[in-house]
Design a protein that fits this description.
By secondary structure, this protein is an alpha/beta fold. The protein has eight helices and five strands.
Length: 144
């Protein structure tokens, strides 16, 4: 089991240059979990693609349906105290700390491409590239 943030989910469900990495990560560990926050953040990402004309409504709906199907039953509400303890220990947003706190609470690794999260919580995180086997684990914390 791994915890994933919204960016990893977006890479998997929205076709792009990082999709192959996300697919490799999914093949390596298909048990993905996330903070329930991912839904709102994912909708916001898709809103940008829709408004810029990169994706049409049908594509947006397919992305949402696929991601929600994948994570239904694997989403967690993270206690505020756990999130705020990570906020107090970092300069990361409360949104980002929600994913970190979930990983810590579940004794799992957060897979992310967020450089700030990787830098501030190296013991709880690994980069998507490292997890997918693209970079050597000794480069943990250095998202490219």
């Amino acid at each position: 089991m791994i915890v994933v943030d919204v960016n990893v989910l977006a890479y998997l469900w929205i076709p792009g240059e990082m999709t192959a990495l996300a697919e490799t990560a999914l093949a390596r560990d298909p048990h993905w979990v996330s903070a329930i926050l991912w839904r709102s953040e994912f909708r916001n990402i898709l809103a940008g693609y829709l408004r810029r004309g990169v994706l049409d409504q049908g594509a947006v709906d397919r992305c949402i349906d696929g991601a929600e199907s994948q994570l239904t039953g694997h989403e967690y509400i993270v206690p505020s105290g756990l999130v705020m303890s990570k906020v107090a220990a970092s300069t990361c947003s409360a949104y980002d700390c929600e994913y970190v706190a979930l990983a810590d609470n579940l004794k799992a690794t957060l897979v992310t491409s967020d450089r700030q999260i990787l830098a501030e919580f190296p013991a709880l995180t690994t980069s998507l590239k490292t997890f997918a086997g693209v970079t050597h684990p000794s480069k943990r914390g250095n998202a490219h």
